Amino acid sequence: MLGMPLKKSYSTKKEEFEMNRRYFGTDGIRGKVGEPPITPDFMLRLGYSAGKVLAGVSPISSARPTILIGKDTRISGYMLEAALEAGFSAAGIDVMLAGPMPTPGIAYLTRALRLAAGIVISASHNPYYDNGIKFFSSHGNKLPDEIEYAIESQIKQPIICAPSERLGKAHRLDDAAGRYIEFCKSTFPAEFDLRGLKLVVDCANGAAYHIAPHVFHELGAEVISLGVTPNGLNINDGVGSAAPDMLVATVQANHADLGIALDGDSDRLKVVDAAGRLYNGDELLYVLLKDRIITHGSVPGAVGTLMTNLAVEVALQQLGIKFVRAPVGDRYILEQLRERGWQLGAEGSGHILSLDHHTTGDGIVSALLVLAAIKRSGQMLAQLLNGLILFPQMLINIHILPGADWQNNVAIRKAVEQAKSALGHSGRVLIRASGTEPLLRVMVEAQQLDKASAYAQAIAEVARGECGVV
C-alpha cells in the first residue's frame, strides 16, 4: 500500500523535493490544456510512470494493482483520461473509470474499494481551458512526497510496454455516484434531517452536478439547483464558490434559507444566508470549532494558513483553542493536522478538512457539518459568528513572467517592508506565488479597509513594474 517504504532508492528529503519539483505543485500537476505538461503525450508518460511506481510499492500479491480515475466536466477530460488509461495499461495496471466525480469522491472510493491509488483529472476552480491531475494514495490521502518524486524520476525513462498478456484492462465503475452520495449522507448526524429547509445548491457546472443536489434532497431539504448543466466549457463560469453572485441573487429571489456554493471539483465550500451574506472558509471553520466544543467539550487546536484572517486567530484564542498557520494549500494543512493529532483545519478559499469525517477537503461534507451545527444550536449562521469580526483584507493577483525572481527583487522587498512598518501590529502583509496558476498574490490585512487597500495597491504596482506580464 502507498506510504510503505519504496523498494527502490527513490526516497529523498522533503526539502530537496520541494526545491526540485518539475511537474508536481501544491495540488498535483496543473496547466493550460495543449501546453506542457497538460498534453496527451505527457499524460501517456505520466500514466505509465505512475503505474510503474505504484506497482513497485503495492503489497506483494498475485493480483495486479488497480487505479481509479475520475474527472470533472471539462471537455479536455476525455482526452487526458484516454491518455492516462493507455499509459497505465502499458505498465500492466488495471483501471476503473468513474466518469465525472468530485475529487473527495475519488479519495473516498479509492479507500473504500481498497485500490492502489486514485486519480482526478481536474483544475478545480480554474477556467475550462486549464486542467490538471491529482493523485490519492490507497488510504485516500495526497501522495507522499517520495512517491511524487519517484513518479517524476520515472517520467525520464523510456516506455517499455508490458507483454500483451500482462497489459492492464479498463472498466467502468457504474455505481460510483450512488456510493459517494451514501457516504456523504452518512456524515450527517442520524438524529437530524433537513426537512423544512430550502437550499440553493450551486455545483459550478462541475463534478458534483449529479451528486450534491441528491445528497441534500435525500436528507429532506427542498433543493433549488444551480450550475448543474455542464457542457464542457462552462465549468466555474459565473457560478460556483469563485463566482457566488448568482447564488446570492438566487437565494434572495427564492427566499431560500441558505445557499451552498461548491467549486469545479467540489472540494471547496462557501455559504450564503437568507440575507445574502457570503461566508468564507475562515468563518465556517470558526462555526465548526464552536460546534465541536459543544459536542466534544474542548478542542485542542486547529490549523489555518498564512492567509487566514487575523481575527479568526484572536477569536479562537479567546475560546481556548490553539491555532497554527500552515503554508497555503490543503496538503500543508493536512500535514499540520496529522503532526499534531488535530481534526479541523481550513483556508479562506473554502477548503475545509475534518479528519474524523474524511481524509481530504470535501465541499458537500463540510456543508453538512455546517448544517448540523445550525441544527444543533438552533441559531442562524450569523448568530453562530457572534464574537468574530473579520479584519478587512485586500487581495490583488498579478500575472507574472515565468521564472520571475520576485522573492529577491529589491524594489518589491522595499515596498513590502514599508507596508509592514506602517501597519505594525495592526495588520499583516503577505506576498506569495500561487501554487496552481502563474500569479503573484499580494494580500494586505488591516483594521481599516482604506489602509489595507492602499498598501496592497502600492505593493502590486511595484510588482507589476518589476515582474508582471505586460
DSSP, total strands: 18
The biggest sheet, with number of strands, parallel, antiparallel or mixed sense and barrel status, is: 6 strands, mixed
- Number of contiguous helices: 15
Shape: globular
The chain-level structural class is: alpha/beta
GO molecular function, one term: phosphoglucosamine mutase activity
GO biological process, one term: UDP-N-acetylglucosamine biosynthetic process
EC number: 5.4.2.10
Protein name: Phosphoglucosamine mutase
Question: How would you describe the overall organization of this protein?
Answer:
With 470 residues, the chain is α/β, with parallel strands linked by helices. 37% of the residues lie in helices and 20% in strands. The protein has helices spanning 14-20, 40-57, 76-90, 103-112, 145-155, 176-186, 212-218, 245-253, 281-296, 310-318, 330-340, 363-377, 381-384, 410-423, 449-467; strands at 29-32, 66-71, 94-100, 117-121, 130-137, 170-172, 198-202, 222-226, 258-262, 269-273, 278-279, 301-305, 322-326, 344-346, 352-354, 393-399, 427-433, 439-446. Strands 1-5-4-2-3-6 form a six-stranded mixed beta sheet, with helices on both faces. Strand 12, helix 10 and strand 13 form a beta-alpha-beta unit.
Concise description?
With 470 residues, the protein is an alpha/beta fold.
How are the SSEs ordered, and which strands pair?
Blueprint: H1 14-20, E1 29-32, H2 40-57, E2 66-71, H3 76-90, E3 94-100, H4 103-112, E4 117-121, E5 130-137, H5 145-155, E6 170-172, H6 176-186, E7 198-202, H7 212-218, E8 222-226, H8 245-253, E9 258-262, E10 269-273, E11 278-279, H9 281-296, E12 301-305, H10 310-318, E13 322-326, H11 330-340, E14 344-346, E15 352-354, H12 363-377, H13 381-384, E16 393-399, H14 410-423, E17 427-433, E18 439-446, H15 449-467
Parallel strand pairs: 2-3, 2-4, 3-6, 7-8, 7-9, 12-13, 12-14
Antiparallel strand pairs: 1-5, 4-5, 9-10, 10-11, 14-15, 16-18, 17-18
Helix pairs in contact: 2-3, 2-5, 6-7, 9-12, 14-15
